[in-house]
Amino acid sequence: xxxxxxxxxxxxxxxxxxxxxxxxxxxxxxxxxxxxxxxxxxxxxxxxxxxxxxxxxxxxxxxxxxxxxxxxxxxxxxxxxxxxxxxxxxxxxxxxxxxxxxxxxxxxxxxxxxxxxxxxxxxxxxxxxxxxxxxxxxxxxxxxxxxxxxxxxxxxxxxxxxxxxxxxxxxxxxxxxxxxxxxxxxxxxxxxxxxxxxxxxxxxxxxxxxxxxxxxxxxxxxxxxxxxxxxxxxxxxxxxxxxxxxxxxxxxxxxxxxxxxxxxxxxxxxxxxxxxxxxxxxx
Length: 283
What we know:
Layout: H1 3-22, E1 23-26, E2 30-36, E3 39-44, E4 47-50, E5 56-63, E6 67-77, E7 83-94, H2 97-102, H3 107-124, H4 128-133, H5 135-152, E8 155-167, H6 169-235, H7 240-258, H8 272-280
Antiparallel strand pairs: 1-4, 2-3, 2-5, 6-7, 7-8
Helix pairs in contact: 3-5
C-alpha cells in the first residue's frame, strides 16, 4: 500500500467518524442532553440534529413518554401501632430533561423513595380502620405531597395508585382472634337477650293468668250471689225448697268426698234435716 492511499483511507475514516459524531437522529419520545466541553449546552429534540464533532457530547438520553415506577411493598405503622403492608405504582413524565439529569442523581429512585417516605407519613397519621378504608384519600394526599418535589426534578407525576394495603400477617391473626371474640360476645348477648325475653313473657303470662283467674272468681262469686238472691226471692220464708237444695248439694259433696282416694270413712250426721237447718240459721 502506498503512502498516498493510506492517507486517503485515513482521511475518509476521519470524515466518516466526524459525520457520525456531528449528525444525530433523535427518535420520537426521546430527548438528548448535550454537553460541550463537560458543560450543559443544549437539548436535542426528536428528528435530525447537528452537533459540533469532538466538542459536543450526548451525555444523557431521556425518555419523555410516561414512566412506570413500581414502589416496593413496605411495612407502615399506623397511629394506633398497627402494622400494615402497602405498595404503590406511580406514572411520571419527564417534562424538563435538564432538571431531570442535573437536579438529582437518579430521578426514578428519588421519586420511588419519596413516595415510600410520604406514604409512611400519611398512613402514620391514621388509625388502622381508617387506613384500610381510605385508599382514595391516601392516593390524593400522596400525589399532592410529591407533586412539588417532582417539579423541581423536571418531572410531572401523572398518577399514583395504591396497589395494595393490608394488615401484616401478625395483625391479620390478631384481627381474626378479635373478630372471633366479638362474634362470641354477640352470641352470648343474643342468648341472654333471648332468655330475658322468655322470662318476661313467662311472667306476663302468669300475670295475665292470675288476672283472668281473679276475674273468673269474681264473676263466679257474683253469679253465686245472684243465684242466692233469686232463690231467696223465690222461696221467701219457705225453708223446704232451700233445705232441698242444700241437702242435694250436701249429698253430692259427700259422694265426692267418699270417692276421693284418701277417704276411707265418711260420717254423716244422724239428723240431716236439723244439720241443714243449722246451716241456714233457722230452727
